[in-house]
């Protein structure tokens, strides 16, 4: 299982410092949506140049202009870019085309998708190979967690790899790891940790128990 660090509310400089400390424990560096707003594609390019052995995900949450926006992120150095599962199939197909041309991956973020099972089936038919279960920050504030959607996703997915995000932390990561998603996404659980180095080591240790 991979660990994806989601960097949302840090400056690019703070993000680089954090990744330097926990580099060994993480596999994917996510340039979170707020960081993209703040810094643009510069954040993607800088992070890939600084940490060339790490995979970089640009969390653009694309809703339209799929081909154009996905290609922009890939050209900036992203290995993965996100598109929203609620959007039109045409946008998903545009992203997939950009991914194919560039030899990179599209991740479909299932935040706010209502009929999850039906949508998973459709997305897999379109050729999507990575799906992200996601309970967003605002939904988390109302007490929602991604565990049930992850269970459903594990039952319904035929081929796609699965990642999961939504408030994962050192305390809760085992619950998710035992369901065997391919990628566990941790944002605030690391970026707001008192000791990110120790927390990242702890998360890695807990995940290893389920591998
Ligand atoms: O995608 C995210 C959110 O929508 C803000 O852009 C977060 O990166 C994702 O939810 C992971 O962060 P945590 O929930 O803090 O672990």
From TrEMBL:
Belongs to the HPS/KGPDC family. HPS subfamily. This is 3-hexulose-6-phosphate synthase. The keyword Cell division does not apply. It comes from Suipraeoptans intestinalis. Its EC number is 4.1.2.43. Pfam families: OMPdecase (PF00215). Signal peptide: none annotated. Pathway: One-carbon metabolism; formaldehyde assimilation via RuMP pathway; D-fructose 6-phosphate from D-ribulose 5-phosphate and formaldehyde: step 1/2. Keywords: Carbohydrate metabolism, Lyase. It catalyses: D-ribulose 5-phosphate + formaldehyde = D-arabino-hex-3-ulose 6-phosphate. Residues 2-203 form the Orotidine 5'-phosphate decarboxylase domain. GO terms for biological process: 'de novo' pyrimidine nucleobase biosynthetic process; formaldehyde assimilation via ribulose monophosphate cycle; L-ascorbic acid catabolic process. PANTHER family: 3-KETO-L-GULONATE-6-PHOSPHATE DECARBOXYLASE SGBH-RELATED. GO terms for molecular function: 3-dehydro-L-gulonate-6-phosphate decarboxylase activity; hexulose-6-phosphate synthase activity; orotidine-5'-phosphate decarboxylase activity. The keyword Plastid does not apply.
